[in-house]
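Known limitations

Files may contain more than one protein. Parsers should not assume a single record per file. Below, a two-record file is shown to illustrate correct handling: read the sequence, read the C-alpha cell line, then continue until end of file.
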Amino acid sequence: MRARNIGAAAATAVALLAARDLVQKRHALLRNFPVVGHARYLLETIGPELRQYIVTSNEEERPFSRDQRTWIYASAKEENNYFGFGTEVDVEHVQGHAYLKQRTFAGALPDLHDPQAPLPSAKVLGGPRGRAKAFRPASVVNISAMSFGSLSGAAIAALNEGAALAGAMHNTGEGGLSPYHRKGGDLVLQLGTAYFGCRDEDGGFNLDKLKDVIAGAPVKAIEIKLSQGAKPGLGGMLPGAKVTPEIAGIRGIPVGKDCASPSRHTAFSDVDSMLDFVELLATETGLPVGVKSAVGEMSFWQELATLMARGDRGVDFVTVDGGEGGTGAAPRIFADSVSLPFRMGFSRVYGTFAELGLTDELTFIGSGKLGLPENAAVAFALGVDMINVAREAMLSIGCIQAQKCHTDKCPTGIATQNPWLARGIDPASKATRAANYLRTLRKELMKVSAAVGVAHPALITADDIEIMNGDYEARTLAGVYGYKDGWGELGPHLAQEITALLTAERDHRP
C-alpha cells in the first residue's frame, strides 16, 4: 500500500511538472519536451565536473565553443558574462589567435557606463552616391539574412522585435518579407535569385511588385544576394510539400509545387548589367542598394571596383560573407571547402577597393561568426563598418547548437516549420533576449575600442591587433593580410565625424 501511494504521488508530481512545462514560456525546450527536457539543464549544471574527465574542453567545440555559447546565453539573459581564473586559450602555443594592443593614453571617449549607449555606423549608408533615402544606421550590429521558411515564424518574429528593441536592422533573407518581419524592426530586403515576393509568373524580377512590398514595410535598404557563405554558387530547391499556402503567398509561388532557386541571377548577367540593375532599384525606390557575396575568384571584385571608379554607377554597400558555412543547410563540401574564410576573403575584397581609393565611398558589412567581440574587433580592424549576426542571434533566442537545422527537427523550434516544435518559442520573451545580446555586443565593442584608445570600433586599425604564431612570433593584422599604410582605416573626415558624434553628449554634460 505504501509503495502504491509513493508511486501515485510520484506520478502526480511528474504530471504537474509536465503541465507546468507545457504552459511556461521561459524555456522553449521544456515546452516541446516536458519533464525529459530538464535532463539537459541538469547535465549543463554539472558540465564543468563532467568535462574534467570526458568529452571536450570549453574551447574545443565547433562551430561555437562552450565558452562562446555561454557568453552569448549570459548576455541574452542579462546575467554575469564574465569569466574567472584566467583564459582557457593556450596562449603560449596556439597559432592564429588575435590580441589587441591597449593604449596607455587616449583622447575623447564616449560614456562606457550607459547600457543604452548608441553605437551608430561611422558611414552614412547611400550618402556618397546621393540616394534619396540615405541614412546613418543606428547600430553597427544587425541581424543577418535568415528567411522565413528556414526559420519558424515565431523565431523570425522574436528576432525582428528584438532588433526593434535594440535599434538594429533585420535582413529578411531571400525568402520574402513575411508578416513575422513586421514586428517593429527596420528591414533590409534581400533579393535572391528567385526574387521571392517580387517575381512574375515565370520567376523573373518584377519591379512593380518590389515597390508594393517596400511601400508597406519599414525597408531601409535592398541587398542583392549573389551568394552566401553556407553554399556559394549553389542554387536550391524548395520541395512542393513544404510550399504551404502561407509560404506560397509570401514568396509568390504556386501552392504545393516544387520551386527552384537558380544558382545565378536572371535580371543581369555580368558586372556591367548588375550595376545597371543596382541603379534602377536605387532610382525607383530611393533606397541604398548593395550586394552580398562570399569570396571566390577575384575578377568579379576587380571589375566592380574598376567600374565604380568611374563615378557614374556603384553599389552603396558590400556584404562579404565568410565561406565557413552558416545558417543555410548545404552539402558538406560547400560548408567546408567552397569560398574563402571571412578574414582572408574580406581582406582581398577591401584591398581591391583600397587600391583605387574607394573605401570611403561605400559601406563594408561583414558576416560569418562575427557576433563575438574578438572576431568583431578583428573585422573592424580589417575595414568592416558594420557586422551582421545570424547563428549568434539564434543562440540568443534559445538555439542549443543541436545542428539539426536541415532536418526540420530543431528541438527548440527555431529552424523548423513543425508547428509543435515552433510553439516552444515565446516571441515576446525571446525578443528581449535578442535585444539584450545585441546591446551587450555593442557595449563590449565600445569597451574594447576604449581600451585601444579610440571612440568607435571602426577606428581600430590593422596595426592595433597582432596575430600570434605560438610563443615565438607575432605579426600585425596588417602584415598578415598585406595591408598598405592607411588600409582598414576611415578617412580623416569620417573619423572626426564619428568621434564627435559619440563624444558630444559627454562633452556637453554640466
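...continuing to the second record:
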Amino acid sequence: MALFLIIPISLITLLISYNLYYTLRFKLPPGPRPWPIIGNLYDIKPLRFRCFAEWAQSYGPIISVWFGSILNVVVSNSELAKEVLKEHDQQLADRHRSRSAAKFSRDGKDLIWADYGAHYVKVRKVCTLELFSPKRIEALRPIREDEVTAMVESIFKDCTNPENFGKSLLVKKYIGNVAFNNTTRLAFGKRFMNSEGVMDEQGIEFRAITANGLKLGASLAMAEHIPWLRWMFPLEEEAFAKHGARRDKLTREIMEEHTQARKESGGAKQHFVDALLTLQDKYDLSEDTIIGLLWDMVTAGMDTSAIVVEWGMAELIKNPRVQQKAQEELDKVIGFERIITENDFSSLPYLQCVAKETMRLHPPTPLMLPHKANANVKVGGYDIPKGANVHVNVWAVARDPAVWKDPLEFRPERFLEEDVDMKGHDFRLLPFGAGRRVCPGAQLGINLVTSMLGHLLHHFCWAIPEGMKPEEIDMSENPGLVTFMRTPIQAVASPRLPSHLYKRVPADI
C-alpha cells in the first residue's frame, strides 16, 4: 500500500520541483496559473487562438501557457512576432513534433516537421529553387485555371437548373473540389475525380488515407502533453505502421507510373512528383524525403486555400458594397466577353485587396505551427528556455487595434491606402509565416485564392438566402489547427456573363 502512495507522491514532488526550478532560474512570461500535472490544459477553450488572445488582454502580448508539463510561449503583437521570426529566428527555428507527427514525417524527414539543420536547409532549397520557382508556378498555371473554370461550370449548371431556381448553394462543396483536384494534380499529377465528381480507385484510397491520418493524430491529444504519463497511453505502433505502409504504397504506385511515363516520352512533366524524382540524385533525396515532401504539399495546400475562399465569400455576401466594387473593377478591366486569367491580376488591385483582407481577418492557420527553442533566448524581456515551444498568434496580430484601424471591419480599401506585404516581410500580416520557416508556396496559394475569388465574382452575383439577414451569417470558427467556418456558407448564385463563358477550360499537362 505504501508503495502505491510513494509513486504518485514522488511524481508530483518531481513535477513541482521541476516547475519551481523553471520559475527560479528563468524570468518566464506571465500567464494563467497552471495546475499541477495538467498545467493550463483544462483552462484552454476549444478555439485556442481566441483563448490566447483573451489571455493576452489580461497578461500582456507575451504569455506562458503550460500544456501539461510543456512550456508554450504565445506572442500576440507584431513587435514580438518580429523578435521571434526575425531577430531570434535561428534559435527558434526547430519544430516541436508530437508522437504522431514524428511517425507521419519519419522523424522530420520532410520539410514541415524537420528541425532546422542541414536536412531542412537542403529540402527548403529544393522547394524554393525548384518546386515553387516562378517558372514552375507559371508552368502549372493551366492546371489552376482548369480547376477554377471547372468550378464555374459546375456552379452554373446547378444554379440554372430549373429545379434549383432561387435555392441556395453550399459554396464549400465547389471550392473544396477545386482545392482537392488542384492539390492532387500539382503534387501527384493525378486528377482522381472525373467531371461528374466520381473518384477513381486511387482517389478513394487517397481520401481514406488522409481521413485515417487525421483520426490517428487526434487519438493522442492528452498524452502528448504529459511525457512521463505516456506509458499509460502507448502509441498504437501497429496502426501507425499500417497507415505508413498504406500511404507509401499509394505514393510509390504513382511514382512508378510517372517513372514509366518519363521513359516512354523521354521528358519530365512539371508536377511535383516528376520534379522530385528527376532531382533526386542532384539533391541526394531519400525516398522517405520525396514521399514526405509530396504529403507536405497535401497537408499544407488541401484545406487552406478553400478555407480562405469560403471566408472571403462569406464576407462578400455579408458586405454587398465590397462585392459590387470588386465586380465593377472586373467589368471595367475584363468586360463581359472573356474570363479572368492570372495575367490580369496586376490590373485588378481591388480584387487583390479583397484576397489580402480575407487573409488578414481569417488566416487559415491562426496559430503558427509551434517553433521550438534550440537554445535559451530572450523575447520581449522574458526568458524562453531551450526546449520550450513558441507560437505566434497570427489571428491576434492581424486584429491588433494598435496597428490596424477598425481591425474587425472587412475593408479591403485599407490595402490601397497602404501596401502591406503578406509573404513574411511585414510582421503585421503573417498568413504564411516569416523567417526561415515561411511557407515556400505562398505565391502559389495567393494565386489560387485570387483566381477563385475573381472567377466567383466575375461570373456570378451572390446573395444570402431569402428571409435571412446579413448579420445572421455565422462567422464563428470550427476548432482545430485550421479554421473552417463552423456553419458552411449557403448563398444564391446568379450568372452575370454570356452562357458560353461558363465552360471548363481543360488542361492536360
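Parsers that stop after the first record will miss the second one. For reference, the second record is described as follows. The radius of gyration is 24 Å.
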